[in-house]
Amino acid sequence: MALTCAPPLLNLKLFNKQSLTHYCVTRKCNPVNSVTDSNTRTLRYRSCSFLADDKGLRMSLLRSSTKRNSIKVGVSSGEAESFDSEATQQEVFAWSSVILPFLFPALGGLLFGYDIGATSGATISLQSPELSGTTWFNFSAVQLGLVVSGSLYGALLGSLIVYPLADFLGRRRELIIASLLYLTGALLTAYAPGLGVLLVARLLYGLGIGMAMHGAPLYIAETCPSQIRGTLISLKELLIVLGILLGYLVGSFEINAVGGWRYMYGCSAPIALLMGIGMWSLPASPRWLLLRAVQGKGPLQEYKEKAVLALRKLRGRSNDDKVSEKQIEDTVVSLKTAYADQDSEGNFLEVFQGPSLKAFIIGGGLVLFQQITGQPSVLYYAGPILQSAGFAAAADATKLSVVIGVFKLLMTGVAVLKVDDLGRRPLLIGGVGGLAFSLLLLSAYYKFLGGFPFVAVAALLLYVGCYQISFGPISWLMVSEIFPLRTRGKGISLSVLTNFGSNALVTFAFFPLKELLGADNLFLLFGAIALLALVFVVLIVPETKGLTLEEIESKILK
């Protein structure tokens, strides 16, 4: 018969110690081998952890918590046939220890969002004869497009650059370089003497975006406890939205100042400096260090020692802590097992093969649908939609942007609070379904509901809210955790490239499509794409809530 209960509290003498130790190293759960005492009542009675004679192992086990374990008890022989633990070991940690390893990488996302928000006001300031403070304010449409899209081009280029270099640089160094690019781009923009320097500065800032949007989710995912990974990476999206709102606010304060665009862009420099100093103070990702060891880039023992020290620093543990040593040993065993029959290092095309291809279909598909469901276009229409509804504040573009930014921030907060509780799939399914409905509602408004402006307002707010609880944070969360460690750097850089490439496609195709189809049919097209995205999520996207990165690789991608 099969009995499901908590792990029995048994003395270590009831186990084969050699088998127990091996099981402990190779499995992410409390190890139990043959159980000679198979009394059902006793098994039910006993506690959720077991004692070990070895003090170090006992302390390690007592600090860990487990979920349910399935025990098969052989009633005919009186011996347990097997003990199959499917529990996921929950790491014990202090919230204070995860704040800085999250915050400093996430500042890269805030700086990305800030550029989006600041540019909306900076373009107005730059083109004003009275307020630009320059003699070269009279931009052509192409020149203005290059200024606005310069950071996007830089992000695309940055994504291409990190594809072959991601595993060589490592997550920490990549983010330090990103902060330097952010800082240089911001200062050059603020002091640009002419259009040429301004365009170069925008490109440099964009390079920082490309590297930060690649390195930040990687570093956070690889260094945080698995049970809060979803929350922290979703918080990174919250910081992007906070950056957008901050850019809007600075723009609203500086919009009437002469040369205000310089202040709008230059205000990002102190944040970039803080990001660089912060990343310099943090250790390298322990998983990246172990990956380099498995790839044969240095002595395994040396990299293991570095990884243990890094993990202790990240968790705020003492130098004689044994839990970190065990966690690193478990990860080494997982990596060796995963790559036992493979070359030590993935090649250029491996992202398009086997488990990595499956991961790219999931992650790349999400960031693609994130953009081609029309997110840039819907926000472009926010002003006209609210104006048609009679909102006086909509006459002031900067104030309108702040209102939308606050709402985006609130809805992203909802996703952050629920992503590790409800899971990824429920939020994606509900959010993308809401996106499709809101886009069809906008299409109906422009087709035959023009006399009911509240419909447009409701559709706009529904779209923004549904996007921020689904594609906004969860796409990047899934991208950061779905790829195997072996190809994670290349896979995420390719996903970032897909995201920014599709962003550019939607941005540049918007006006031609609007003229060709009209606003009503354009939103109808986006609605149809959103329905296709919903089918993709339901059929393809897995649930990763609560799984470690190694478990995602072994259970979902195999």
Automatic annotation (TrEMBL):
- What InterPro entries does the record tag this protein with? MFS_dom, MFS_sugar_transport-like, MFS_Sugar_Transporter, MFS_trans_sf, Sugar/inositol_transpt, Sugar_transporter_CS
GO CC terms in record = cytoplasm; membrane
Q: Where in the cell is it found?
A: Membrane
Q: How does it sit in the membrane?
A: Multi-pass membrane protein
Q: Which GO terms describe its molecular function?
A: D-glucose transmembrane transporter activity
Q: Where does the Major facilitator superfamily (MFS) profile domain lie?
A: 101-545
Write out the GO biological process terms: D-glucose transmembrane transport
Q: What is its main location?
A: membrane
Tell me which PROSITE patterns the record gives. MFS, SUGAR_TRANSPORT_2
- Please verify whether the record's keywords include Iron: no
- Keyword Calcium assigned to the entry: answer is no
Which residue ranges does UniProt annotate as crossing the membrane?
92-116, 136-163, 175-193, 199-221, 233-251, 263-282, 427-446, 452-479, 491-511, 523-541
Keywords attached to this entry = Membrane, Sugar transport, Transmembrane, Transmembrane helix, Transport
Q: Which protein family is it in?
A: Belongs to the major facilitator superfamily. Phosphate:H(+) symporter (TC 2.A.1.9) family.
UniProt protein name: Major facilitator superfamily (MFS) profile domain-containing protein
